[in-house]
Amino acid sequence: MLGLLVVMVPLTVMFTVGLALVGAYNMESRNIPGSPMWLKLKVHDNDNWNYIKQCIYDTGACNDLVSRSLTLKSYDFNSKRLSPIEAGCCKPPITCQMQYVNATFWEKQNVAEDSSYPYDSDCDTWTNDQGTLCYNCNSCKDGFLSTLQGKWWTLGFFLVVMALILIVFSSVAIPCFDVGALCNIGVQMLHFLLLFIFLFVFKLVWIIF
């Protein structure tokens, strides 16, 4: 009985947390931790964002984009697939209609206002200063938010799948606790597997957050 509790309690917790993370992805209440609205409020908070954008800058995401785009022309760069953070933080929004020079240097055009594009405050926020770029833009915040939500959902899905697999495995192994040494070895292997999964999840959460 004790062995059953030792195995099933952490698996139940893992499964519940996984469902919460996956389910929260589709919730809109700002009071539910992990929901899109809750994350958006946290990311758009100025104090939080000052810390976040410094972390983004320190990772060198935009510098890496420049090094990968040195030989690209305007057309090639515009057709290049960028990560949400690269697209939101390292270049001005497409609605600004700026002229491409390189990945992080764009020139404003003296053209008549195009009514097909609504006014975007990010166009005024953008600067070619390599330490600023579009780190203060709403597009940068949205790019970070999109990346975070994707990783959050992936973590939740991983927890649910692994919990289900281990629950099925343990339901077969636990009844034979008292059958013999061979069965006990199988149960011990299950315990080691559980420990490995928890350590892996802990490291994954540490990397993401």
TrEMBL record:
Membrane topology value: Multi-pass membrane protein
Q: Where in the cell is it found?
A: Membrane
Q: What keyword terms does UniProt attach to this protein?
A: Membrane, Signal, Transmembrane, Transmembrane helix
Q: Which residues form the signal peptide?
A: 1-20
Q: Which GO terms describe its biological process?
A: auxin-activated signaling pathway
Give TM segment ranges. Answer: 152-177, 189-208
Q: Which domain of life, per UniProt?
A: Eukaryota
Q: Provide GO CC annotations from the record.
A: membrane
Where mainly located? membrane
Q: Which PANTHER family match?
A: TETRASPANIN-8-RELATED
Family under the similarity heading? Belongs to the tetraspanin (TM4SF) family.
**Protein name (Swiss-Prot/TrEMBL):** Uncharacterized protein
> What species does this protein belong to?
Quercus rubra (Northern red oak)
